[in-house]
Amino acid sequence: MNIMEKLCAGPRVTKEARSKKMHQELSNMDSLPREIALDILSRLPITSLIQIKWVCRSWRSLAQDPLLATMHLSRMNDNDPGLILHCDLPLQNHLYSLHLSAPDIVTRLRGPMISEFAIVGSCNGLLCLWHSLYKDKCYIYNPFTRDFKELPRPEQFQTQTRVAMGFGFHPGTKEYKVVRIVYYRNEDEASSFQVRRYLPESNVQVLTLGSGRSTWRSKGKTCYQILGSGRPYQSNVLLNGRLHWLTCRHRHQSLRLLVSFDLADEQFQEVPNPDGMFGRRCSHLAILRGYLSAIVQGFRRLSIWVMKEYGVKESWVKEFNIGDHLPRHMDLNQEQFIYIPEYPINCSQARVLCLLKNGEILLEYKRRSLFSCDLKSGAFRELVGGSLPESFSTIVHIGSLKLIN
Fold first, then answer.
1. Is there a domain that residue 60 lies in?
2. What pTM value is reported for the model?
3. Residue closest to 83 by CA, chosen among 57, 51, 122
4. Confidence label for 346 from pLDDT (cuts 50, 70 and 90)
């Protein structure tokens, strides 16, 4: 055999060996009991699970097993979540995926065929989307499986001024629901500017997914004004089957309240606030370590209040403080990407996303950067992405194989 024959034969042997090894691994996997195979697959990242269904017919059957979706989602809840970046420019129709285990890899997702959309919320791997141009269109979308469903159109109001939205799952009823709160002017009853400004009419609408009654149901009026902080579709957080919003009563807009909407009985209820905590300083809500948390803007810092026992006023604790700039003695560390801004961080443009497993707080800043804050040292670490979009909104998202019923 001459040199050329050896060079040609080398790769061929390697390819044959790889093929033999792969067939052996497939055979080993097929010989495992189904529950063990599902347990192994449930430990894989969502991107790998999407790919395995193309390996062979038996693996496709495993990937489509509803039990795998449940097991995988349960395991992913114990890890740092993934992030969905919704690009704002030039159009609101681009989605990117980023996982905190590899923040330098930003993956463009194939979004739904919608010209522009806002993201209402994320729940168990599903996104609820609201059409930005045609306000009566709503969708449920799995960005990894690309499973997609358009929901029935709700009732519209000619004098509609704004809409607040919510999307979630109740563990007791096992139902997914979309909540829509419409504010509109009643021109017949409200003639003065003051009345139109402070006493808008409202209508609460609820849709249950996967039921024979998948139509919007009116729940009547609400006395609460949902505060959106510039993001009316993303102003809610979900905890224990309840959607939570910052609100104010129509006549007392300087006093911010915290209300919940129970997805089981579909009723609003005020959540007790600690004395003197809110006012206008509470900017947004978050879920940290499974606790309802409120982010309050103080003088050149953010304070994070945590409700340790749900519904108990006395259980609110100011647990974290985030300064607006790094200690000046810290140097730029290229390996850890420690970032020292030239100017103090504007707390009003920082949004708390989640608490990481290493104890750091993850923040979005000015819709263009992602930082984590070490609560012990006060240092910020920029999560350097491969190609972050110019402007984006960040949604904490756990990828799953969940199908839309």
1. yes
2. 0.81
3. 122
4. low
